[in-house]
């Protein structure tokens, strides 16, 4: 008998038995120590089931359980509305703002009051508020870090003039508006100065993060306009938050004279942060130079700086969020360091905690209070004042400085974006008791409207000033063979470029190759976008030099990569799109297919397509979700590369399974003409020898390039043959058949180009 095999089992059983007996002994002996008179026994009057139900209800209403249920609900609803806004080309922040209003008394609370009372009882809102404030502190820390103060110093002249004009004009109009609405809408006991200052600052704010994302999505970041507007927004952010700190101090103190000590302390705090803390953090950051990770002691230092800064400003009386913003702004200016630190904070702040703030704002927003035409007219007047002040103020100032009308209006439209920053200001005003529920609801509607109008306003401006320069670069009658390759990783771009070169090498001036990288806008920050683009195209540029090949590069930041890729492909008059085969996180998983899980965790589009019958949850697709969407929406031929260390298409194997696969011979012909490739065609179904048209096509290729194409009639394909080939060309339908039949080829095939004809 092999005792070694059973030794661990015997030890495990013996340990369990011995120590179970020991515990039983101590429990029995311990019961003898009880003083019977002082023991209170819990009596249950109902049945076992009733007791269980009662206990379950108690657990459901436990503060922690309730908070977790709220977080789950909020994140799901926020992601859903964010996705809807992304699909209609709006910033996801609008969807998250709408999600907050939907979950509040304006919709769910009105039509499902019992559910609302269960999920968001009044006693639970304190926990939600404090957790959302932590999210806001982390968010403002990120906003401060995303400001590139170097750019602000170098290019600040015109930008600061526009920025300050875009603050002072709406600020003045806001105070004027307050004069007309103070008596009707200001809460009792609130001074006119306090009310007017908060209305004015709410009119003056610009959402720097949303504006930066829009600039990236519209590829304006490299233009003079993009630089000006980003710098304007950065200057606006810094100025507006300084003004807000002063306004909070004045409101809390009751008058400017009373707030003078608070303002002096705030100035001392800013001086301390810039002259002492910032140099200290720079020295700490220099220790991190060249490293790809940040050590835990370093993280602790910077988080302590954030918390102490927020604590200091809260105690001084100018709000913790100003301290968080200031802590981010004085972080070491090394772009790589800031990126590493932002990545540590961003996911928790933006995905988990920030939606809590949107919903908490929504729970305060009672649109039902605006129950007559007079109130809606007032709301409209507030929106008009906000748009005229910010949009017109910025645009006219830019035009006065000599910027043309199109760019001036574009600056105005972008600076009018208020987004989340507006909600932060409004919530501070609401917490201080300066804003009544009615005016708070009107201002939230204004924030939504001005943010939502940015995209349509930009599109309208582009339409008004459309010129011949804006027309597509490739006219329909252009005879060039155009290849577009789209990649996500630098190495993939280099591989696809070599493949495109094999298809077009000898075409000289009759070809055009464009290498495109579409990057998720959420993964980039305004100050690092140039470096990010440079890194993405580094391999492509090096390979193009090696091949002596002229390549056009195209970079785009996007919130919807699939739709942007297909839109560019369809509108660009391209002849072939080359992409890499990707992989889904849950590929092949029934749960993944049923719920629509992907690397984005939950893909609403896949769920929608399943409902519409466009995808089949029980069907093992030969492609990942991303590739399926590209194939479904693209109107040009698509080549999907399965890369197995592809170098060059010198030896190419083409299996022909059906008559519909014969279009592959056109690609074989291109490879022979441009790369002198050796082509082996496998007549899998024996249909070539019976088809005169195809035989003539092969004969025509042989006449032009003798000994470059071979018809292979062997029924069995050996592993050695497959491994000797550089590339396999196959149709998308035949590739699906290989996957479905679990063909033995799959483990031995070379790099494979799956070509789908629309």
UniProtKB/TrEMBL annotation:
Signal peptide range: none
GO cellular component: membrane
MF GO annotations: antiporter activity
Gene Ontology biological process terms, A to Z: proton transmembrane transport
Stretches assigned to the Cation/H+ exchanger transmembrane domain: 76-459
Topology term for the membrane: Multi-pass membrane protein
Subcellular location: Membrane
Chief location: membrane
Protein name: Transporter (CPA2 family)
Matching Gene3D superfamilies: 1.20.1530.20
Database matches in InterPro entries: Cation/H_exchanger_TM, CPA2_transporter, Na+/solute_symporter_sf
Record's keyword annotation contains Ion transport: yes
Record-annotated membrane-spanning stretches: 9-28, 60-81, 93-112, 132-152, 159-182, 194-215, 227-250, 256-277, 298-325, 345-363, 375-396, 439-465
Keywords for the protein's UniProt record, in alphabetical order: Ion transport, Membrane, Transmembrane, Transmembrane helix, Transport
């Amino acid at each position: 008998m092999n005792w070694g095999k059973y030794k661990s089992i015997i030890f495990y059983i013996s340990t369990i038995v011995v120590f179970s007996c020991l515990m039983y002994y101590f429990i029995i002996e311990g019961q003898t120590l009880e003083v019977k008179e002082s023991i209170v026994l819990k009596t249950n009057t109902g049945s076992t089931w009733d007791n269980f139900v009662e206990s379950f209800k108690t657990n459901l209403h436990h503060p922690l359980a309730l908070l977790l249920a709220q977080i789950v609900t909020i994140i799901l609803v926020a992601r859903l509305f964010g996705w809807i806004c992304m699909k209609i080309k709006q910033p996801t922040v609008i969807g998250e703002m709408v999600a907050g209003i939907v979950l509040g008394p304006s919709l769910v609370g009105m039509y499902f009051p019992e559910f609302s009372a269960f999920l968001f009882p009044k006693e639970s809102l304190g926990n939600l508020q404090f957790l959302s404030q932590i999210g806001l502190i982390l968010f403002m820390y990120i906003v401060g870090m995303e400001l590139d103060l170097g750019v602000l110093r170098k290019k600040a002249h015109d930008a600061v003039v526009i920025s300050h004009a875009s603050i002072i004009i709406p600020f003045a109009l806001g105070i004027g508006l307050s004069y007309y609405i103070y008596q009707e809408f200001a809460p009792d006991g609130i001074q006119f100065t306090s009310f007017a200052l908060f209305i004015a600052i709410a009119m003056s704010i610009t959402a720097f993060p949303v504006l930066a994302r829009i600039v990236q999505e519209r590829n304006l970041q490299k233009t003079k306009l993009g630089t000006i507007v980003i710098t304007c927004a950065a200057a606006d952010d810094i100025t507006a938050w300084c003004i807000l700190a002063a306004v909070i101090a004045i409101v809390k103190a009751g008058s400017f004279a009373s707030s003078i000590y608070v303002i002096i302390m705030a100035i001392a705090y800013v001086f301390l942060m810039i002259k002492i803390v910032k140099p200290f953090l720079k020295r700490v950051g220099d220790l991190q130079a060249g490293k790809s990770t940040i050590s835990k002691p370093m993280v602790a230092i910077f988080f302590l700086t954030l918390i102490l800064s927020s604590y200091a400003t809260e105690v001084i009386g100018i709000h913790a969020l100003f301290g968080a913003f200031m802590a981010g702004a004085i972080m070491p200016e090394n772009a790589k360091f800031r990126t590493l630190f932002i990545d540590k904070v961003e996911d928790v702040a933006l995905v988990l905690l920030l939606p809590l703030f949107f919903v908490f704002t929504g729970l305060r927003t009672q649109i039902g209070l605006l129950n007559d035409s007079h109130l809606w007219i007032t709301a409209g007047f507030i929106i008009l004042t906000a748009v005229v002040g910010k949009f017109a103020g910025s645009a006219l100032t830019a035009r006065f400085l000599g910027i043309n009308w199109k760019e001036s209006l574009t600056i105005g439209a972008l600076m009018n974006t208020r987004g989340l920053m507006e909600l932060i200001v409004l919530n501070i005003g609401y917490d201080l008791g300066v804003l009544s529920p009615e005016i708070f609801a009107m201002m939230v509607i204004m924030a939504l409207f001005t943010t939502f109008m940015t995209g349509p306003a930009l599109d309208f401006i582009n339409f008004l000033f459309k010129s011949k320069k804006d027309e597509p670069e490739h006219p329909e009658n252009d005879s060039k063979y155009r290849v577009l390759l789209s990649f996500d990783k630098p190495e993939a771009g280099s591989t696809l470029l070599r493949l495109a070169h094999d298809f077009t090498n000898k075409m000289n001036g009759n070809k055009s190759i464009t290498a495109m990288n579409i990057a998720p806008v959420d993964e980039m920050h305004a100050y690092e976008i140039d470096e990010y683009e440079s890194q993405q195209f580094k391999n492509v540029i090096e390979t193009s030099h090696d091949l002596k090949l002229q390549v056009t590069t195209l970079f785009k930041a996007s919130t919807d990569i699939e739709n942007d890729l297909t839109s560019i492909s369809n509108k660009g008059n391209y002849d072939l799109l080359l992409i890499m085969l990707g992989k889904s996180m849950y590929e092949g998983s029934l749960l993944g297919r049923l719920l629509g899980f992907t690397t984005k965790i939950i893909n609403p589009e896949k769920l929608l397509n399943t409902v519409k019958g466009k995808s089949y949850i029980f069907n093992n697709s030969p492609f990942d979700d991303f590739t399926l969407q590209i194939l479904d929406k693209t109107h040009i031929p698509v080549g999907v590369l399965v890369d197995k260390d592809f170098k060059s298409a010198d030896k190419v194997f083409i299996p022909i399974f059906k008559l519909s696969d014969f279009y592959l011979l056109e690609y074989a012909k291109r490879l022979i003409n441009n790369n002198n490739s050796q082509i082996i065609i496998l007549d899998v179904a024996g249909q070539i020898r019976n088809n005169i048209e195809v035989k003539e096509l092969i004969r025509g290729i042989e006449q032009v390039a003798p000994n470059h194409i071979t018809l292979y009639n062997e029924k069995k394909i050996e592993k050695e043959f497959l491994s000797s080939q550089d590339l396999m060309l196959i149709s998308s339908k035949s590739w699906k058949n290989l996957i479905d039949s679990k063909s033995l080829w799959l483990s031995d095939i070379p790099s494979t180009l799956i070509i789908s004809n629309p």
